[in-house]
Structure formats: structure tokens, C-alpha cells
Specification:
The protein has 222 residues and is mostly helical. The chain has one domain (34-221). 87% of the residues lie in helices and 0% in strands. The protein has helices at 2-28, 32-55, 64-72, 79-88, 94-147, 152-221. The chain starts with a helix and ends with a helix.
């Protein structure tokens, strides 16, 4: 019972020690750490926004048999995909249908593509910002060696410059690597949604073609 009662206290103490150690490392990284942090916030902000936007499309939860049924039977449509079908099935001919789907792709995919491009820029910038911090750290190291007369004070200045150089390099890579995998995952989701729209366009075009052929046959029979 005593050990379990002390567990929350020890956990908070460990958390405080971890925070102090992290802040100490952050402080030793110099001014470049702030730039890397802002870059990471922008990058993951775009990523989370894109993930939520693609998640709201609900295209993964609707099977092909279901949306093909919805094309022919509007009364069964529901959700985001049903609303999309309500919009695209208003076309009166195949050219109009293709134009409607082109508009849907531009409206749906263009913002996602822009955000993914911004993520790529941030991913590329993260290690470069780390490299910039490395250069400034090494400059501080050489300045300390040039100005110092030896002794403990000079060694402290040299160690601070080396710490800044190594910490910023590591932080830039730590930010860039998960961002790269996150951006790849989102790109696959975007490609999946684009493929879904292409299949949906094909299904709508086939249904429209059948209806136009049936209407033409009725006119000829009359």
C-alpha cells in the first residue's frame, strides 16, 4: 500500500526531471531550436489538418457495391458520399458529367495537394535549420578557441558551441523523419481518395450512358 501510494509522487518527480533535462537540452541548442520548433508546428499542423480533412470524406467506409447501388437508387444515399452523388448525378450528358467531376477534383484535391506541398517544404527545411544551428555552434566553438587562453572557462565555451552544433543537427533530423513518414501516409490517403473519385466517375458515366441509351431506345420505339 505504501509503495502504491508513493507511485504517483515518484511519477511526477520523474516527469519533472524529464522536463528539466529536456529544457536544458533545448536551451543548449541555441536560437536555431526556436526556428525548428516553429517549422515543426507548421508541418504537423498541416499534416493533422489534412488527416482530418481526408477522414471526413468517409470514402473508406463505403464499399463499391454500396455506392453503385446509390448511383441507381438516390433514395438510399446518405452521408458525404451520398451528398457527392447528389451533386454529380445531375449531369444531363457525358461531357457535363466529366466537367462536374473535374470541378469536384479541383475543389476536393487541390487544397490537399497544397498542404502536402507545404509539408514537403517544412520537411526539407527541418534538417537545413539544424545544419544552420550546427554552423553557428561550430563558429562559436572556433571563436572560443581563438579568443580563449586555455583553462576551464575556454573549455566551457567550447563545449557549449559543440553542444549547440550537435543538438540542432539531431533535432532537425528528429523533426524531419516522422514528418517524412507522416507526409507519405497522407499522400497515400490522397491517392486513395483520387482513385475513389475516378471509380465513382466511371460508375456514374456507365449509369448515365445506360439511361441515355434507354431513353433513346424509347424515343425510337415511339
Amino acid at each position: 500500500m505504501l509503495a502504491s501510494a508513493q507511485d504517483p509522487v515518484s511519477f511526477l518527480e520523474q516527469l519533472a526531471l524529464l522536463w528539466d533535462a529536456s529544457w536544458d537540452i533545448w536551451r543548449k541548442g541555441g536560437w536555431a531550436m526556436g526556428a525548428i520548433f516553429v517549422n515543426a508546428v507548421i508541418m504537423f499542423g498541416f499534416g493533422v489538418h489534412t488527416l482530418l480533412k481526408l477522414g471526413r470524406k468517409s470514402f473508406r467506409g463505403v464499399g463499391e457495391k454500396t455506392w453503385r447501388l446509390w448511383i441507381a437508387h438516390p433514395e438510399y444515399r446518405e452521408g458525404k458520399i451520398g451528398a457527392l452523388l447528389d451533386e454529380v448525378t445531375l449531369a444531363g450528358d457525358l461531357e457535363q458529367s466529366a466537367a462536374v467531376f473535374d470541378g469536384v477534383r479541383k475543389a476536393e484535391l487541390a487544397p490537399i495537394n497544397r498542404e502536402l506541398k507545404m509539408m514537403k517544404v517544412c520537411i526539407a527545411a527541418a534538417p537545413l535549420l539544424g545544419l544552420l544551428g550546427t554552423v553557428t555552434g561550430m563558429l562559436a566553438t572556433f571563436a572560443a578557441l581563438a579568443a580563449g587562453q586555455g583553462g576551464e572557462k575556454t573549455m566551457v565555451a567550447v563545449s557549449q558551441g559543440i553542444s549547440e552544433a550537435l543538438i540542432t543537427t539531431m533535432t532537425g533530423l528528429v523533426v524531419a523523419l516522422p514528418g517524412l513518414f507522416f507526409q507519405y501516409f497522407l499522400s497515400r490517403m490522397r491517392d486513395g481518395y483520387a482513385a475513389f473519385l475516378a471509380r465513382l466517375e466511371t460508375g456514374c458515366a456507365q449509369d448515365l450512358h445506360r439511361r441515355l441509351e434507354a431513353a433513346r431506345a424509347d424515343v425510337e420505339a415511339a
